[in-house]
Amino acid sequence: MMSSSQAAPRRHTRQREAIVRVIQASRGPLAVNDILERAQREHDGLGIATVYRTLKLLLEDGTVRQVILPSGETRYEMSGLGHHHHFQCRRCGEVVDLDVCPVAVLTGTTLAGGYTVEGHELTLYGVCPSCQE
Ligand SMILES: [Zn+2]
Ligand SMILES: [Zn+2]
User: Domain 85-132, CATH 1.10.3470 — does that match?
Assistant: First the structure.
């Protein structure tokens, strides 16, 4: 018979893997509730506290990163996706990754007055195809 001290870490590993799979499979950064809802399709008993605890660990070990949207909402995506931006639908709230960078000012550029650019953040918003129908 399996002892509970062995079973618990294995359950945690499976929950962690399910949460990572959900974030990897998404077309854009996910809110905690999106992650919970999708991960519950694999793990019925998964609770919001487990999602929060797992996200904290995944942030600490650098597997995922936080995305703060202009609305102040926090979402999560995989680290190491490279430079990219997001589009948020103003009707349904869906956020998707974009593969274009519309910013013409390059990192390292010195602006008038001596301000050196080290990076940028930008979120585009509008209406997604489903909401346009
Ligand atoms: Zn939409
Ligand atoms: Zn950019």
Answer: no
Indicate which ligand has the atom closest to the C-alpha of 121.
2
How confident is the model at residue 6, as a pLDDT?
Answer: 54
How many Å lie between the centroid of ligand 1 and the Cα of residue 85? 17
Fold classified for 4-78: Arc Repressor Mutant, subunit A (1.10.10)
Q: Which CA distances in Å does 132 have to 60, 98, 126, 128?
A: 39, 19, 10, 6
pLDDT at 43: 84
Greatest CA separation for the chain? 71
In this predicted structure, the answer to whether residue 2 has a pLDDT above a threshold of 70 is no
Residue 114: CA atoms inside 13 Å, Cβ hemisphere, count? 0
